[in-house]
Amino acid sequence: MTRVLFLTKNEMVAGGVGEVMERLMAGLPGHGVTAVLACPGREALALYGGMGIAAHRAKMVDDWWKPLKRLKSIRRLVQIAKDERIDIVHAHEIGSPAEGALALKKSLGLPYVITSHGGINPAYRKLKGEFGFFKKRRIARQLESADAVTCLTSQMRGFIDLYAKIPEEKKITIANGFDLSWWRGGGEPQNRGGLPYAVALNRFAEGKGLELLIKAHASAVARGAAFSLVMAGDGPLKETLATLARSLGLPVFFGREEFEGCATPSVWFCGYLTGEPKRRVVRESLFMVHPSLFEAFGLTPLEGVAAQKTVAAFRLEAYADFLFDGENSILAEPGSAEGLSEAMEKIFFDEKLRQRGAELDLEISARFDWPAITRKYADLYAKILKRG
């Protein structure tokens, strides 16, 4: 079995990149690869240990002005790699994870792959802050020394050239995906009490467009669209969003029974969902709405496609391969609450649109089935190791 060390600065406990990495680690053994995880989150050790995945706590540090912390981080990673008999390293993002992979290559001669989950995208940098001169130089070195750099979309792949010039054969596009059989399993969606609802799965944080979503929902309801909104997630803006919904005349609930017993359009904050509760709330929805203002890839709306749900969203480049305006989605101009409201109304009132979208989703989703994507990574590791 090939042994790969995953490096991330993600805490690995609440969706996002962590969820993607979890799926990849779980699927790799079926292709002859064992994944070992190094991340800063304490909770991840027990979580992944219970799943049979070796997990180690290690902080990722690449700040040149913190030499002692950086040296300690590198020593920790070297020890993990030796103890776990690692063959190849997979850094999940440029910056500190890639810096750790580069250090392991220098120390132990281990080849490494970098996957950018969005950090390489200029739009992401505008949200999170631009890199300084020295940071750009370190990123260029990370990319140039990598044995392969994978990106989620062909657009992101083009952004590599903003930082470094590397051979085209080292630039690889591998999308995120989902377990299609899981989304299609679990039996038929059950009839539920209350009004039909749109579901939004997102972290309640800045840049996710959730205030716009609440306003869009209230506008659609005011114009006669009698549907509720389920907000599945958690985060620092939860109370702010609940207060906004109430101020716009929407009843707010935190429990399923109260929500399902409400005969008027309302908002249910159901908390962060995973596993069967997540599948249930998506499959029982009328449609999905995803108001993010930036996405590196857009796994959540892609999961809507897997569940055969028409999606209301803002028009982002990240969705170009799986959301098609007027076919399986209605896309609004980014940042327009009114545009998003109209998109939600159109999906709500147009049953034929929802039916056409569900049929198209069957064809689209087959291209993103997670087992096929896992194999691409396993094949990439094998190719690099064979190359020596």
Outline the structure in words.
The radius of gyration is 22 Å and the shape is elongated. It has 16 helices and 14 strands. α2 links the parallel β2 and β3. α3 crosses α4, α4 packs across α6 and α9 packs across α14. It is of the alpha/beta class and 388 residues long. It has two domains: 195 residues, Glycogen Phosphorylase B (Rossmann fold); 187 residues, Glycogen Phosphorylase B (Rossmann fold), CATH 3.40.50.2000.
Order of helices and strands: EHEHEHEHEHHEHEHEHEHEHEHEHEEHHH
Strand elements, count: 14
Q: Could you report the average pLDDT, rounded to the nearest whole number?
A: 90
End-to-end C-alpha gap: 17 Å
What general form does the structure show?
A: elongated
- Uncertain stretches of 5 or more adjacent residues: none
Give the secondary structure arrangement, pairings included.
Elements: E1 2-7, H1 17-27, E2 33-39, H2 42-49, E3 55-57, H3 67-83, E4 88-92, H4 96-108, E5 112-116, H5 122-128, H6 133-145, E6 148-151, H7 154-159, E7 171-173, H8 180-184, E8 197-201, H9 210-222, E9 228-232, H10 238-247, E10 252-253, H11 256-260, E11 267-269, H12 275-283, E12 287-290, H13 299-306, E13 311-314, E14 329-332, H14 337-349, H15 351-365, H16 370-387
Parallel strand pairs: 1-2, 1-4, 2-3, 4-5, 5-6, 6-7, 8-9, 8-12, 9-11, 10-11, 12-13, 13-14
Helix pairs in contact: 3-4, 4-6, 9-14
